Amino acid sequence: MAISQLPFFREEPVGAATVAAALATTFIITSMSASGSECIIVGGGPAGLTAAIYLARFRRRLLLIDSGASRASLIPETHNHPAFLGISGRDLLARLREQSLRYGAILRTGHVSDIRHGRAGFEVVTDLGSIVAPTVLLATGLTDTRPDIPGLVEAERRSLVRYCPICDGFEVTDKRIGVLGPMANAMAKAKFLKTFSREVCVIALDQSSEASAETIAVIAEPTRITACDAEVAVECRVAGQRTFDRIYVAAGCAVN
Ligand SMILES: Cc1cc2nc3c(=O)[nH]c(=O)nc-3n(C[C@H](O)[C@H](O)[C@H](O)COP(=O)(O)OP(=O)(O)OC[C@H]3O[C@@H](n4cnc5c(N)ncnc54)[C@H](O)[C@@H]3O)c2cc1C
Questions:
Q1: Which portions of the chain are predicted below pLDDT 70?
Q2: For residues 177 and 194, what is the distance between their CA atoms, to the nearest angstrom?
Q3: Are 3 and 115 in contact (CB under 8 A)?
């Protein structure tokens, strides 16, 4: 179950006063070398690690638990991170981890399966055991929805299929761009991508009956994606085959 679906998250939001009242009662239920954590951070991507750096420098005792599937680890090289002309997601994560450790953060690999709120604070249930702390910071990120189309995973592996034009739209300036997803999502992303290239085409997963008022081409019902060298071909039931330099997926996401 995603952390965002846990009952306490939906039904029993805990006020700041409750959290503050529990501050003195931090303890570890089962052994984990992080006795007396004031905060448990769930998630060790850029958000969780940034929080760890700040809290550690505020001289708070914190334990970060991460299951090791940061979306950032999928970034071959980012060019929009201020102060870096280019850095891979893995290098960025390594630097963040090193910086947080320097100030005393405790980082552990593990999966959090439940969080319960009680008198003593939050009980965080992990595959390493249960831990209680007065505060929990959730930085569990999200998971992109990947349409189930043959060939998509391979094209993604070769970086021909991307997800975030805010991150790397600049790199496809004046290229042939396909935007894959349900019509409404894909059209919205396609409009943004039009600011990078005139050659943008929606690859609609659903066959929309509504005529598009936009000047953006539409093909529909993709059946296969084939990556070849630096380009990617898409076969569609409606409107045949088209070739693109890059495809962006616009199929939504699930909050972890
Ligand atoms: C292919 C790709 C390229 C990208 N390129 C760029 C780019 O160039 N520039 C840019 O700014 N952004 C880019 N992004 C987006 C960037 O990766 C995300 O914005 C960033 O990783 C979000 O950080 P986060 O810490 O919120 O979440 P994440 O990095 O996803 O970290 C969440 C962490 O929480 C952990 N977690 C989740 N649930 C649990 C649980 N129950 N128990 C324990 N741990 C848990 C996960 O394992 C994960 O390590 C890209 C993303 C992708 C997929």
A1: 1, 3-35, 208-214
A2: 9
A3: yes
- In the reported structure, the alpha carbon of residue 97 is separated from the centroid of ligand 1 by a whole-number distance in angstroms of 14
* Measured CA distances, 80 to 1, 9, 166, 172, 253 (Å): 32, 33, 9, 14, 22
Rounded to whole angstroms, the Cα distance separating 175 from 197 reads 6
> Cα of 219 to ligand 1 centre, how many Å?
31
pTM assigned to the model: 0.86
For the segment 34-77, what is each residue's pLDDT rounded down to a tens digit?
458 999 999 999 999 999 999 999 999 999 999 999 999 999 99
Note whether 247 and 203 are within 8 A (CB). yes
Give distance in angstroms: CA of 240 to centre of ligand 1: 35
Predicted confidence at residue 240, as pLDDT, reads 81
Task: Report the SS3 class of residue 120.
Answer: coil
Whose C-alpha lies nearest to ligand 1, atom 26?
Answer: 141
Q: Is 156 in the pocket of ligand 1 (CB under 6 A)?
A: no
